[in-house]
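**User:** My hope is that you can spare some time for a protein that puzzles me. I have put the entry right below:
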Amino acid sequence: MMKRIISILTTIILTANFVQSQNLLKFKNYQSATVGIYIQDLKTDKVIASENSRKAMSPASVTKSITVAGAMFHLKEDFRYKTNVYLIGDTTNINGTIYCDIVVETSSDPTLESEHFNANKKFVKSIVKSIINKGINHINGEVKYIYTKDVADYTSSWMLEDVAWDYGAGYRDFNYKDNKFVLTINADSSQYTTSTAVPDLNLSLGLISASKKSISLCRPVNSNELYVYGTYSAQMPEVKASCSLPNTKHAFECDLVNALNSDSITFTRQTNANYPDTILIYSHKSPKRNDILRSLMVRSDNMFADATMQAIDGENSIDSLMNFFSKKGINCKCVNLADGCGLSRLDLLTPKFIGDVYRMMYNSKHKNDYVATFPRAGKDGTMKNFGKGTRLEGKLALKTGSMSGIQCYGGYMLDDEGEPTHSVVIMINNFFCERFALRKEIENFLLGIF
């Protein structure tokens, strides 16, 4: 009898410390979904819960937490993007007139004129101010660009249906105004306005009146052709859509010329002969590393994330990052990264791989900075409504990831002092239930563990 009691107690203790069984989450049609779970005690390294932890799955925007982890190691804390602007040509000022090109040495800074950093909404104004200070009132030349790094194309594996929307605003060699604009259409008259200049936009409308509004966008890659189709309400014919900018350079050039004209400086487009004169007229610095990383994680910004990946090692960033993780003892086999943001359907990560990266960051000097980038449950960003009013509020620091049929979470459980106690990875692919119900089931599952 005593042996049986000891056996039962042992089973209870093991179950309390380690849960490894199928179907840890129960939601409608869960049998058809793929569920991956990996929760680890960071102080003891004990695995608390595990399901399909080595199965490669689509992580969606949880990928951003992997990109940010790499950026913490590869970019210094005082890292800033730097964008220089020059006048190059014949800088001889004759009665206020020069024959020069305005040349932007771009660093792929994602924050230029970003609505998320008010201090950075001065790029154009600062260029114009510098030109005014030099007594120039007429420029003959062109707007040109110098690139400091070869730029990887992470959008090549994105789905076409994503490209036209603001979340599909991939980063470019030159980023401007978050690479997006708001399109407002009067569906009755087919008249439209844009929140920023979008030169050469060719808009095709296929809108019909119906009882319910449902809008879709389509724009081929590297095209100015934007198709807007669907239904609108006859009682409310105004249709709004937040779209990706087809050409960031054209938008910037239009804003720059308009700003010059507003200050009585004329700009005449003209091809000049090569002259040796070069004058630096403005040097722009972005916010620091941690401010950018916190912004992209809380808002789940795809463009910021891919720009961050690019900053690690240019075209070689993904290979460099995976090699770095391997050297840190993380098994990188059977995982794949195609971008830095998670929008690609080719991104495949395992719950254990993600958990191992989180454990590495917990044991690194970057722990506090890294954990601070994650949105908090019930508090901010994409976690604002998760766990609100429960004991999880403020205690879970998780990056969310969601696409059609995908819901993922990755990050940390925190103690009362904000110190990470556990790494948490939950990944669900191919679910067939309401997303709200699935999120609630995940919340209840975590409440049962913590």
Residues 20-77+289-449 form a domain with the Beta-lactamase fold (CATH 3.40.710.10). The chain has a mean pLDDT of 93. The chain has three domains: 20-77+289-449, 82-151+249-285, 158-244. The first strand starts at residue 19 and ends at 20.
